[in-house]
Amino acid sequence: MNRNLEILISDLRVIAQLRRVAAVLNWDQETYMPPKGAEARADQISLIMSMSHARFTGPEFRRSLAELVDLPSGKVLDGGLPPHQVRMLETTWWDWRRANALPVEFVGELVRLTSEAQNVWEQARHTSDFNLLAPYLEKIISMKREEADYLGYEDQPYDALLENYEPGMTTRELTALFESLRTPLVNLVERIRDTDTPDHREILAGDYDESDQWKFGMDVLYDMGYDLTRGRQDRSAHPFTTDFHPSDVRITTYLDRHDITQGIFSTIHEGGHALYQQALNDQYFGTPLCEPISLGIHESQSRLWENYVGHSRPFWTCYYPRLQERFTDQLGKVTLDEFYSAINMVTPSLIRVEADEVTYNLHIMLRFELEQAFINDHAAVNDLPALWNEGMEKYLGITPENDADGILQDIHWSMGGIGYFPTYILGNLYGRQFYEAANNQIDDLEDRIARGDLKTLREWLRENIHQVGRARTADELVQDVTGSPLSAEPFIDYLQAKYGELYTI
Amino acid sequence: MNRNLEILISDLRVIAQLRRVAAVLNWDQETYMPPKGAEARADQISLIMSMSHARFTGPEFRRSLAELVDLPSGKVLDGGLPPHQVRMLETTWWDWRRANALPVEFVGELVRLTSEAQNVWEQARHTSDFNLLAPYLEKIISMKREEADYLGYEDQPYDALLENYEPGMTTRELTALFESLRTPLVNLVERIRDTDTPDHREILAGDYDESDQWKFGMDVLYDMGYDLTRGRQDRSAHPFTTDFHPSDVRITTYLDRHDITQGIFSTIHEGGHALYQQALNDQYFGTPLCEPISLGIHESQSRLWENYVGHSRPFWTCYYPRLQERFTDQLGKVTLDEFYSAINMVTPSLIRVEADEVTYNLHIMLRFELEQAFINDHAAVNDLPALWNEGMEKYLGITPENDADGILQDIHWSMGGIGYFPTYILGNLYGRQFYEAANNQIDDLEDRIARGDLKTLREWLRENIHQVGRARTADELVQDVTGSPLSAEPFIDYLQAKYGELYTI
To answer: Do A24 and B25 count as a contact with CB atoms less than 8 A apart?
Structure first.
């Protein structure tokens, strides 16, 4: 490898290590930190993150990068480099340009603002008082518009924010995609509602011992191929996946004594994320080649496992008897069909994170619309609760009784996470396309799943998706793996087939 | 406060925060890290520690310090500063001078060498093969001699190393102290041995449920005043205390199903350390005023609680019934006197960490002699096992059958921790003097302990010792608190009285 590239990679590694150190601090904060340690911890995280940012945007890194890439254009200087190194440099430059676009004081101010706003959000949600949050949201929106201007965009400001999470994606492309999804989804939800099927989730009601829930989840993780010598599961208020290196990728889960589905599906969901991180090629650690492609691609892995495997009949053909064995009192008399149908109930509801796999997407579309409204079209913050409620009525036919169950339900905007929500739908779409490719390429995939052989799928994902890192863009990956560009069709077909059968419509 | 002082303190805070970040990484490594995360973790810790070192020894810090202190002499420039700020600057300068005395390459080489040596030590101990470790030990000793030369000393090289752990202490002073301790101890051990008392620890044999052991330990910690909103206990292979800020001070314990004393005393010991750290004045965080004075003073706090409280009759008068209640099957028929006598058995034994409070000191004296022999007198590494065995015979009348139970038992030297061992005896001596001062100053201290009132003692320690930080030296603190200089006499008197009664000699 040439000397300049070596220097650059070694710089990148230090920057990446600092970020991972902050991730350890954050993991501890969410799992084991005593409550009064919070203030000192915030200082530590902010110190480490600012050091990482300073290195990435500092003169030394600029010099290293300038030896290899034409800084104004991003063109790689050495035409003889192998393609993966060219891509590595292009992607590094892309990240670097965006990190440099934001003035340090701007970043600092946004961090302070959103950190305060998150506390205010908790209070606002608790008291269902949007007015508390409104002035903060107003400032955040205004700063995010400023951010979009700093970052630059061709078509509309929202594009720039979207790319924080989904490089290469545009508002226009997303709008078209969501358009194609909207009507079939709304129709499907209506047809399901018209069947007047009673809520049969109550057959799962019961008191489920948490340590037995834990063990069941660990068994599934093991079968999925989650390597516990290079990872671990803990509990936290909100489940998440974090990685310190491909050799240390951790997940958390949330268990509810009275709702067994919470723990199972959060474990499988985070397990899907974790398999991706564990399989990244650590030989390239620190560089984009050892990074996930985008949030949408990441979410495709969690959704694929949570929904296309974890909510499928083949999966429960194998695992339901095991679950029943652990919870004879609660599930002994519930048949596989009843269980399968209960975990796949479709019901319009107010809270996104509790939504089923059909209505979930409508929750996201609403947020996508609102984000465009306040970023691109300067919608007034005070109008947002009403816009929210109208959207809920339009998409789901229900209206929240208060803002706590409406516009105040998500922390994302208070964190400055604008442009984040659409990646959840993207995850569903990418995930479905990937799942079908796997199903085409693996002999008897669903029979295997029904036998508890989850590792064949995992291995396929590792080879085709996980280990690729940012050597490919999301577009390229979908094309490589599925032979087609991103499309909502496979997802729609899947939902129509699955729920057509379940609701006999 | 003057502007220069503000800048210096802000520099010190960043350096301190980096060290605490490394402490979080290390805590995780010892408690929850999956095994294969070790390599990436070592890289993270070394990155953060080298950043902290680079800042402390870098040109910016030098400039800040030079505004306040005459760098060659350490004299504080502004005569009008209040005494605690003067002391803060003097102590900062003292640390800075020592950190700067070591060339960066030297530090790096020593870190690499000792990190390798620790792995070799594990293997050497496992196979009881001193020859494996010898070449590493040889290099470590030679580098530590070099380190002493870099650091400088007035009398002998070992002084410089001692001050890594016990600022202000000299080999000469320690030698005199240990001289005064040696004969009374050896005599006491001999007189105890002559009583031919059978080993009555076996009455404690049994299978003790670990979660009940845990709960008992947590109850004691609570009574000691360990604040669990600013700390937590976990399990690890070797118990330790670590602090990330006075608001987040954590301990670990080690539980053994078949030996209940392990968990109890390691919990109380680490609890003693933790009370010190939690009570440091966080208004001065980052500066020496929010740091413990020395390892010896730190150990005085753990020993005071572990031995002078935790191994005392008043303590068990209160806690033994509670312990019996938890372990009726195992302890129901063991009387308080039998229990008290079993946990205070004195028996010469091979392993330091398993030694009782009398013979323990003799283990340390042996190490202190050997350290002087190889640092000051250039004793050959190959002669060390024989010197060890001779020393064991001289002090304890027993000889290890192999080096694993002899010279290979401790990790300290492989870590470069030469000069560390004496602080364990210092802890016993300081601790005894402090305990007696507390006993003089607190009405009915031991009656209080016998009622489970441990917080009065804790409060006294907080006020008189913990919150002082490095505003006082160890010498000054002992004088302030006890009215006398450091002396072995109170400790000897205590042992003679306690064991005279226990063994009726």
So the answer is: yes
